[in-house]
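Before relying on records like the one below, remember that each one covers exactly one chain. Contacts with other chains, cofactors or solvent are not represented anywhere in the record.
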Amino acid sequence: MTLRCAVLDDFQSVATSVADWSPLETDVDIVTFTEHFATEDELAAAMAGFDIIVTLRERVPFPASLFAALPRLRLLVASGMRNSVIDFAAAEQHGVTVCGTASSSTPPVELTWALILGLARGIVTESTSLRRGGPWQSTLGADLSGRRLGLLGLGKIGSKVAQVGLAFGMDVVAWSQNLDRERTREVGVTLAASKEELLRTSDVVSVHLALSDRTRGLLGAPELALMRPTGYLINTSRAAIVDQDALLTALRDGRIAGAGVDVFDTEPLPAEHPMRTAPNLLATPHLGYVSRANYETYYGQAVEDIRAFLDGEPVRRLG
């Protein structure tokens, strides 16, 4: 019997073209979905006839209630080797194998710098003005060389962001709850005395932390108030690390010069969401890991995961 596989959130309609799915063609029927399912009930109804689901990153939660609603499901493949929105105990209870894929940290590093540079040099404002016949030069760019880059988190992504900052001639400092001087010396940056000091003294603050109970709401109104009025906040990690209402208020009141954001409290972002109209905000639709090389890895290894599962020898198991 041919199994059915659903590929979720294939927004660019590239899942079946960036990888070779032929190893599955005699055993699996592949169906891609280009629209996001807004609710768990909608997703459960659409997925009821599938044996395998391929999901991207942490875009779709898989709680116990969803596994219970999908008795036919046998394999869930998620891109990346870490996922905080899958209930692994429930998956095991319902007999669902969960597998992951490799993932490169390079694309989110590059996007972080796209946001920093876009804000600092007013790229969107100037490009829009030029194309619409507006003023020739209307912004005054912010220099990066000699300025301070403050990194909240110095893991795989944060450390690479730091290296680029150093190449730009920036003074790079970092802080997280477990960060020590040995790690900052390895990367070649300075350990900030505290989160508060980092916020007060940095010209650009960039968030590179995993979401956890300790980091949820890490930056609220009191913390944003510590930032320089000429400072920029960048968040390509998780929306919940920064209080979204506090960020909107800071932008509307001009308490910071701007923000570059790739993650939101609701994704895809609703049409009327206030983030769509916030001033001094450079926003992208969660593009951090969206690159051709990453997608080739995600979907190529998803095929490998499915083939291995069908052969009775699952690989890259999660949970």
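The first strand starts at residue 3 and ends at 7.
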